[in-house]
Amino acid sequence: MSFDIHIIGGGLAGCEAAWQLAETGLRVRLSEMRGGGDGTPAHETDRLAEMVCSNSFRSDDPEHNAVGLLHQEMRTLGSLIMEAGDRHSVPAGSALAVDRQGFAADVTRSIEEHPNITVRRERVDSLPSHPTIIATGPLTDSRLAKAIADQTDEGALAFFDAIAPIVHRDSIDMGVAWMAARWDKGGKDYINCPLDKEQYEAFVQALIDGEKMPFKDWEADTPYFEGCMPVEVMAERGPETLRHGPMKPMGLDNPRTGRWPYAVVQLRQDNKLGTLWNMVGFQTKLKHGEQVRIFRTIPGLENADFARLGGIHRNSFINSPRLLDGELRLKSRPNIRFAGQITGCEGYVESAAVGILAARFTAAELHGQTMAPPPPETALGAILAHITGGANAETFQPMNVNFGLMPPLPGRWRRADRKKAYTDRARAALSEWLERLKVAEPA
After folding, report:
1. What is the rounded distance in angstroms from the CA atom of residue 247 to the CA atom of residue 197?
2. Local structure of 218: helix, strand or coil
3. Which whole-number Å values give the CA distances from 305 to 59, 124, 275, 415, in the listed order?
4. pLDDT, tens only, 124-135
5. What does the alpha-carbon distance between residue 190 and residue 411 come to, in Å, rounded to a whole number?
6. DSSP β-ladder status, 117-120 and 28-31
7. Of 99, 192, 220, 269, which one is least surrounded by beta carbons within 10 A?
């Protein structure tokens, strides 16, 4: 072969992976179908790393924000995406926003001019037998998607996401909510937030009146399935619909009254750490600000701190907790790794970060080495741990980086100090990990 590693997909994750691998001296073939006669309904150009939905990398605060912390960690690891983002930043307060055209042109030039990278404008329809990283993103071509689905043989490739909000466990008022399972079956597995008749009727009306996000042009034909109907669409079907659906109170005795509430919102544990809880059945197209306003009217969630807000998007992602090992390899075809949004991470920055990890695991393997994963106390390690086993495979949906993915801090912390404590701990853990990698590197 004229290359050591094949990368499919020239988005942010694929470009980051290509750069990281090429910098270790490995020869990279990067396949991107745009510019070779194929395109997607979302992209406007054939430039690599084209940002189609937003120009924002979100918060750049490394002291108090998990995304800003991830920025810092990626810069430490020589991220091409962060370097280009910094060069093409535009005023955005404490956030990092970029000039999209300049950013994409910069990344394209860097990739095409690297002596160890060959860019091929071609579509790949099957899973290669040589070392490969698949980083095709949320608009994976249907032919490659079918090949992935056939290989996994369990319907584990989703074509849209139906995301319910996720709440930090320590922000739920357990003086109002209680733990129980319906009809006391299966243990006290759910957090239950009760509503009386007046509260329920006001909540339903708020859902109907709330401002919704429109589908983008390429999402307009996204189907609604009964199993993932937006909560506001259910509300529009009639005032009692939610009471006989996700807000069903039957079989849930409120220990404070001894009776069933008029309606109930249930939250289910979403990660092994028990720090994140999913609002069951509450996938929604409500705008984010509306979600916060309306969902905080639910008793017990008045001070809810949301790790993720809801949404429904056209997407392609695999059930990574079930299909991938701890180094992002496909368990049934270990010559293939996945990176970027197709792994179930959400966001431009997170996608590029997983590209870094996939590349570094691959580089170590091809150089005859092994690389210890970054600690879960770091932003990089938290994402990796979540998508490769920390998330519940049965309810897996795309996730942004957040402090809830990291192991809880010992002891009790004031809310004002907690975020800084997380980032301080992460920086120390990353530094120790990098020192261990230096010791393990061959001369």
Report:
1. 12
2. helix
3. 17, 42, 11, 11
4. 999 999 999 999
5. 24
6. parallel
7. 220
Please state whether the predicted TM-score (pTM) of the whole model is above 0.70. yes
- Which tokens is 334 given? 């270990």
> What is the identity of the amino acid at 134?
I
The DSSP element (H or E) to which 279 belongs, if any, is: strand 276-279
**Residue 279, strand partner residues:** 267
Sign of the CA dihedral 228, 232, 233, 236?
Answer: positive
Phi, psi dihedral angles at 154 (to 5 degrees):
-150, 20
Residues contacting 388, CB < 8 A, separation 6+:
320, 321, 324, 325, 326, 328
Q: Which two tokens stand for residue 119?
A: 């860019």
The residue count for the chain: 443
pLDDT digits (tens, 9 = 90+) for 68-123: 999 999 999 999 999 999 999 887 778 898 888 889 999 999 999 999 999 999 99
Instruction: Write out the two tokens for 295.
Output: 């969902």
Contacts of 234 (CB under 8 A, 6+ apart): 241, 242, 245, 246
* DSSP structure string for 290-341: HHHHHHTTSTT-TT--EEE--EEEEEEEE-HHHHB-TTSEETTEEEEEE-GG
* 83 CA to centre of own chain: 22
Amino acid at 327: E
pLDDT digits (tens, 9 = 90+) for 243-293: 998 999 999 999 999 999 999 999 988 888 889 998 988 989 899 999 999
Q: How many CB atoms lie within 10 A of CB 42?
A: 16
- CATH of 166-309 among 2.40.30.260, 3.40.50.300, 3.90.550.10, 1.10.1740.10: 2.40.30.260
57, 75 Cβ separation under 8 angstroms: no
CATH (residue range 5-161+314-440): 3.50.50.60
Place of tokens 């997407």: 315
- The full set of domain ranges for the chain reads 5-161+314-440, 166-309
* SS3 call for 12: helix
Cβ distance 308 to 350 under 8 Å? no
